[in-house]
Every structure is written in C-alpha cells, then in structure tokens.
Amino acid sequence: IVVKKTFQQTMSKLEFYFIPVLNPDGYVYTWNTDRLWRKTRSGPTGNFQCFGTDANRNFGFKWQGPFSSSNPCAEDFRGIAPFSEIEIRSLAKFLHSISSSLRGYFDLHAYGKHFVYPFAYTRLVEAPEAEKMSKLARLAVSRINNLPSGQSAPFSVGSVARSIYNANGATIDYVKAVLNVTYTYALELGPSQHAGVNGFLLPQSRISEALLESSTGLFTVFEAIARGE
Predict the structure, then answer these.
(1) Which residue is catalytic, options 188, 209, 213, 223?
(2) Which of 50, 77, 122, 220 is the most buried (most CB within 10 A)?
(3) Where is the signal peptide (predicted)?
(4) What are the phi and psi torsion angles at 95 (to 5°)?
(5) pLDDT digits (tens, 9 = 90+) for 90-130
(6) Does the annotation mark 188 as catalytic?
C-alpha cells in the first residue's frame, strides 16, 4: 500500500508520453516475414535494392561517422541522409514541440541489461550532466540488482560508447545534445548480454521479470524528476 501510494503521488506530478512502437512497418514485418528484422521498411536503396534504415542511426547529431554504415544492405545502415526516415522525422518534430517541458527521455531496447546514457558516438567526450545521469542510473541499477530474482544477471551502468559500443546518429545523443534533456537514457532490457540471438526472443515466462526490472529503474528516475532534481 505504501509503495502504491508513493507511486501514485510521483506519477501525479508528471506528464508522460509513450510511443510503444516507433517503427510499425518494421514491427509488422517481424511477425510476417523476418522475426529478427531490425530496420525500417523504406527503400529499396542501392545497387542491391535493399530495404530499410537503422532508425537508431538516423538522427541528425553526429549522423555520418565510422560507427554506422553507408551500405544500404547493412544492419546499421544510417540512411541516405539525417532524418531520411519518416518515423525519425516525426519523433524529432514531436520532441521539439514539447522540449521546453521535457525532463526525461527513455529509449527501451533489447537486450543486454544495461542502464546507459549519452554519448554513443564517442568515448572521449563526456555528455553534459554525465555525472548527474550516472549517479541516478547507479541508484536505479542498485535497486534493480537487489530485486528478488533467481536468474537475473546484474545491470551495468555507463555511457553507451563505454558500456556497449559506439554508434553514430543515436536517439539519446540527439535528445541530449540538441534538446538538452537532463535525464536521457537507453535501457537495454534483459536477458544478459551472453544470451546470443535468443536474447531478442524473450520467452513469455520472462516478461514479468523484465517488467519488474524496467519499471523499478524507470520509477527511480521519475522520483528524481518529480522532486525537481
């Protein structure tokens, strides 16, 4: 009851915007044709007439670089130009429309159990307010890692580039650098990074665990924003 009351009090102080699926055409394609399809369904592009762009390499901050591909057939194809994808243009337009009140931004991914923040494009430059983001992420992860779950590996904390890999044109880099949103994170859901391709195919039996872990981490950030931190 205490937890529920605290949750309600925190949520009542904030306004939320949810985008359950940013890439609907790609999502449908995963069910109809290729379960592990990653990209949008734009195109075809290039000599081999390949379809799709990696939506998380298409944002207009540090878009063209060594950590995305110019090959239309590659999994991490950046697109023919920044914001070439209608999904990314639409998201950017919406975020700009609410940017004056935007205090937190979360990009949920599968998989690997990482609670990460900008920058993705480089390990050499600290993002603005990196220490603030790191401190809150460490608190969130400590709560997640203390959850009673027999098969959970711990979450890690750090910048995307230092914790996972480098990436150009990433959504959280754009939101942090261009929109200056204080708490900007990507949450890589479970299972752990050693699950191989099966990590993208989470069994139904693990959904409640993933929900508990992610909601615990997200709520930690919600609390900080509600307190005006």
Answers:
(1) 188
(2) 77
(3) none
(4) -65, -40
(5) 999 999 999 999 999 999 999 999 999 999 999 999 999 99
(6) yes
